[in-house]
Amino acid sequence: MGxxxxxxxxxxxxxxxxxxxxxVVRAFPHRFRIIGLAASKNLDLLAKQVNEFKPRFVYSxxxxxLSHLNIECDFLPLEEMASYPQVDTVVIAVSGRSGxxxxxxxxxxxxxxALANKESLVMAGEIIINEAKLNKAQILPVDSEHSAIxxxxxxxxxxxxxxxxxxxxxxxxxxxxxxLSEVTVEQALEHPSWQMGRKVTIxxxxxxxxxxxxxxxxxxxxxxxxxxxxxxxxxxxxxSLVEFIDGSxxxxxxxxxxxxxxxxxxxxxxxxxxxxxxxxxxxSLSRLTFEQPDFSRFPCLNLAIEAGRKGGTYPAVLCAADxxxxxxxxxxxxxxxxxxxxxxxxxxxxxxxxxPTLEEILAxxxxxxxxxxxxxxxxxxx
Length: 382
Ligand code: MG
Description:
The chain is α/β, with parallel strands linked by helices.
């Protein structure tokens, strides 16, 4: 299978994961071919990518602006691109809710889905996993923790006893509650070990990201959330661990660089030698540390785990409330600690639906967005 070229559609090509996906493609021009690129913003970069990778199809929300660029390929809507017959693997690298419908379209079409968007599984895990089984679609995790677990589980034919998700702890892991309430946008966007998009960087600082990852792991690996734990590991060298029923623990280690989990998802089940990927330096690596997460200073972690446990439309409400609250924080309209406050209030006021349809999930999402806006304009937080 060494010479087969995989045809890729990259949704969210101008974001952090999208750009790193194209770096991997650039390193292996004889293995991967881009046939679709989609981006919502940053059309100048999209135009550059189109000129370099020459896809057949392009998508942007702003079709009008796209038509003014000098691009010679056909426009194709997101969901059609995700299910286009010649596409082997769809990379879902868009952020937030916008990943949901393309992910559903890709699994329904039986694609390999390299999934970097965690919100889609968090919001609609039950639907996506069922559709993937039904249509023999393979979900290939791109999130570094889930890629690590996936790699640890390879070759095992029994269910694991426990999944241990590592977290860097973000830039504020030693901040007091008073310090946390004064955190600025600039501070929150400085992540100590990973280069990521703005939304996920803020989610890492609140630990919401890790809570979303617990829900994601629950769906990806069919593991009850009581058997998934979170461990703070500031160096971000161990990307996650799996404990088996005999007490043996496997870990996956590497220098923190998203190109590795992206590449593994694209090349799976093979590994490819990429000289551009940094290697662990055992001469300078002297210590790996572990500590327990502090649920009281980082309430988003528990809010997410609880929403996942309750299921139904709660996780969708969690995602939507967080997405709006993070936007409000980034535009300096609320404090860092108000993110958790708004998400908590919204979850508490939600009337849940069990085993929701996609329409019910989208309705819960819309309700939550409206609720956060309402809570904020009431001048409730701060
Ligand atoms: Mg992650």
